[in-house]
Amino acid sequence: MNDVALEIAVTAARLVVEEGLAFGPAKHRALKELGLPARSALPSNDLVEAEVRDYIALFCADTQPAELRALRELAQVWMQRLAEFRPHLGGAVWQGWATRLCDVDLALFCDDPKSAEIALINQNQRYEVQTVRGLHGDDVDVLSLHIFCEPFNEHVGVHLRIYDLDDLRGALLPDTQGRSPRGDWMALQRLLAA
Q: What is the CATH code of the structural domain delimited by 64-193?
């Protein structure tokens, strides 16, 4: 790793924590803030995540644990509401570095992709649909809701990625650091109890 990559990672980490940017946009904005060429080599997501954790430990240690717990409790509620779709929590809330600016990312594994939408309609939930890259590089639908989070006294994004039931097996393969990239309701309960 070179000094420039580290400097980009540190700046990107600040943008992730302070402004709620995703890693990709944060790295590109860091390039601009540092006055580096657009074609500069970007640091890995693992390096950015390590810098995010360091930034939180240094500047947000007094607030971040409570914010993370509030987001995990919100995820717990939605995992219970959508239990029939085998929800798995992922992203910053699962990995433990989420702040109040982070959204809740749930993967749903459905027999019928439209069944999750029908469940939301039956619960009188308003949502937006978008398409993003999924687990295996294929496009998947994401149902995005804005849910009021009482501890924050504001709305939080809850994003439901819709996968086929067959995708569940590959969804639990460890990441580059050997961690599970997502966890089910029982795994979340263990995190909340710890």
A: 3.30.460.10
